């Protein structure tokens, strides 16, 4: 009898799902949005997304994803609005 692996062929089985998290690292957040991590660091530097700094790392809360959706309702992402501040 031949030894058979337990892995399913590519494209079969259930698709991998990304679990919801309380917060994401910069790299995870950038990957979710299809952006470069430097873009996320720029948003942090400008105060455009909420974040927490723990040690040397930055963590972005999950609710920040909702701040980045385009108002047109499509999947395109716009630059996030500034957090806080006054309306012009």
Care to describe what's here?
With 88 residues, this protein is an alpha+beta fold. The chain has a domain at 23-67: Arc Repressor Mutant, subunit A. Helices cover 24% and strands 12% of the residues. It contains 3 helices and 3 strands. The chain has helices at 26-33, 37-45, 64-67; strands at residues 23-25, 52-54, 57-61. The protein has a 3-stranded antiparallel sheet with strand order 1-3-2. Helix 1 (26-33) packs across helix 2. The model has no long low-confidence stretch (mean pLDDT 75).
Biggest sheet layout: 3 strands, antiparallel
> Can you tell me the residue ranges where pLDDT is under 50 for at least 5 consecutive residues?
none
Counting helices, strands and paired strands, the structural category is alpha+beta
State the end-to-end distance.
75 Å
Which shape, going by the Cα principal axes?
A: globular
Write the layout of secondary structure elements.
Blueprint: E1 23-25, H1 26-33, H2 37-45, E2 52-54, E3 57-61, H3 64-67
Helix pairs in contact: 1-2
Features:
alpha+beta; 3-stranded antiparallel β-sheet; single chain; 12% strand; Arc Repressor Mutant, subunit A; 88 residues
In short:
Helices cover 24% and strands 12% of the residues. It is built from three helices and three strands; from the N terminus they run E-H-H-E-E-H.
